[in-house]
Amino acid sequence: MNDRWTDVRARSALRRIFDAAIASADPRITIADALPAKPKGRCIVVGAGKASAAMAAGLDAAWPDVELSGVVVTRHGHSVPAGRIEVLEASHPVPDDTSKAAALRMLHAVEGLSADDLVIALMSGGGSALMTLPASPMTLADKQAVNRALLASGATIAEMNVVRKHLSAIKGGRLALAALPARVTTLVISDIPGDDPAAIASGPSLPDSSTKAAALEIVGRFAIDLPEAARLVLEQADETPKPGEIDADVRILAAPFHALDAAASAARDEGLTPIILGDAIEGEARELGTVMAGIARSVARHAQPGPAPAVLLSGGETTVTIGRGPAGHGGRNTEFLLGLAVALSGASDIWAVAGDSDGIDGTEDAAGALIGPDTLRRAAANLLDARAYLAAHDSYTFFDRLGDLVRTGPTLTNVNDIRAVLIAAGKPGIKPAMR
């Protein structure tokens, strides 16, 4: 293979690596090998999340000989036909009336089942907002206000879900409780750092080990302004079902590390040494950009933690903490990339791609973006001040004006963020003195 890395070659390689990671998490391919024993009675399918429609389609195709019905809910624009399983669409990341209707439909679907019946719960990222049933006396407006406050708080997705579970009449195992005595199997696509199945879509079909006290601690630590009805629920409502009260047959169809492993294989095909830094990296998106710039420079100067040409691969879910001032448009991946570009300051032979594996970074229409050594130079030529856009949390606008956004459309899966930093060439570094 030609050793020369041009801008076109580097960007094309990064897109192939990114696309390979997403393709590895397609539930229509992975679901057949994860299914439980077929039931003597009926199979009722319920589910929520950005991948739930594709998961349902795979299940319907895999079990043509089973009496099967049910309903799942996904984000607007992420729906595909699922045969005998009805697919609803609802709002994300803030729930709407359809989110509430979907939750009620699922609770109704699992009523009156027998021990011969099987419930398969299809859960993926985004399910917390898409399937919403506020605990009494909360209203949907209260739950929407809570979701907005959580998203702006800087809390991790796992911390958000602890709060959501304890404000819900269906999450945190309450759906599984309603399905008894039927057998319940949960199939998940993980978008959670650490792959805790009970945290995915706030665990409606799995026992919950978190407590109301933990939810209140999170609310206090992040100074989250709760509606009065929500605070009343956290202080007075019953605890969620705990381990031992309901069974937990759970199988993971795809997870962030699987996607990074596929990305690593694609990187080798491009002549790059893959360096997987971790699948559960969290923290402020822009600060991670600074950290990743330092690691990339270490590869280029010292061949550590590996020699160039190499690609740094990482996954997980960063956060973007919005201050009191107005914020622009963007998601955590474009903010990470803008922070990385500023920190690299035009360093040669380094390119990067980052995007959300579901195809939507935040609330915008792009999965993420690409940067290269000329990003800041081209920005300056277009009178774009990268630092000012970063300060205004307006990374989407910045990359849109440069033509560097990555648009995949809905991918029908969700294994969280995929980040790849390509270091094409290295140079001799300073060797430490021998002692």
Automatic annotation (TrEMBL):
Pfam families: DUF4147 (PF13660), MOFRL (PF05161). This is Glycerate 2-kinase. It comes from the Bacteria. Residues 14-234 form the MOFRL-associated domain. SUPFAM superfamilies: GckA/TtuD-like. One of its GO terms (cellular component) is cytoplasm. InterPro entries: GK-like_C_sf, GK_N_sf, MOFRL, MOFRL_assoc_dom, MOFRL_protein. Keywords: Kinase, Transferase. Residues 311-417 form the MOFRL domain. The keyword Transferase applies. GO terms for molecular function: glycerate kinase activity.
